[in-house]
Amino acid sequence: QLEAGLFFQGMQQALRDLQGHDFRKRIRQYHGPVLFLNGERDGLYRLGELLFLAAAPDARLQLVRRAGHVANLEQPERYDRAVRSFARCVDW
Q1: What angle do CA 30, 13, 11 make, to 5 degrees?
Q2: pTM for the complete prediction?
Q3: Contact by Cβ (8 Å): 37, 80
Q4: pLDDT at residue 39 above 60?
């Protein structure tokens, strides 16, 4: 349950704007470090995560335990720790 709620109108527009883009092609062209951070229960994005991981030259995959598609809202502390840990490993 998400206490803050979701702005569905904005989400619908964002999804329309993203249609037709080949994000695996774009990620192949980026040679910096990438973190794919998915909720372990995300039935949508987990389907393609290995394809994205294979497309990225310098990527790692991490799952947020006990989280679904909106892992940053469902498990904010775990999500935050994962992002901070990745940032500490990146040679800026």
Answers
A1: 85
A2: 0.80
A3: no
A4: yes
